[in-house]
Amino acid sequence: MRNRFNEQLLQLNNELITMGALCEEAIGNAAKYLTDSKEMFKNNVYEADKQIDQKERDIETLCMRLLLQQQPVAKDLRTVSSALEIISNMERIGDQASDITEILEKTNKAYINSKSHIADMSEAAIKMVKDSIESFVKNDMVLAYSVIKYDNVVDDLFDKVKDELIEFIGVKSNNVTAMIDLLMIAKYFERIGDHAENIAEWVIYSITGKHVYED
User: Fold this and answer.
1) CA distances from 102 to 98, 128, 139, 165, 188 (A)
2) What does pTM read for this prediction?
3) Ordered domains of the chain (ranges, CATH)
């Protein structure tokens, strides 16, 4: 019985790795679409988002099977319940990558200058998502805490983007709509970072049985 449970836990980890990779793919293609209008990048985002949604359903089914057919001890129960919270955050990451892409379809990207920190935000968000999933798979609490700390980097970049866009609006006041669109895109990247932070917090809970704010 325990061997079967361990096999299903391994399957759960593999499914989470796959879902995390899809999230990275969605964010990465959204970032590419930011500076390159190729239809391929847009389509890749939407396809990845659909696969993320399906993967969420598959993992939910697997988690329910683990809970109902097995008799998990406290640590295993925390692992499964944390996985359910983690996939919920990953699903939102996929949605936000799609939201970014939808905005970009309607935005005049000619006003995105090379000095913008939005590209830096996308790279930082991808790092956070990748590290948060890796911390779960490896039960790495140190890495999970580093993800939580790294969210400050994304927040600081968001503040820089806001300052850049405010300055740009002052110079190009006839392009306010495009600047607001870019601010929304930056906000979505910030939210992606927040979801990665949430994932890391659930990793810590799965290991310790305590939420971060209880430490």
Assistant:
1) 6, 23, 35, 20, 12
2) 0.90
3) 2-214 (1.20.58.220)
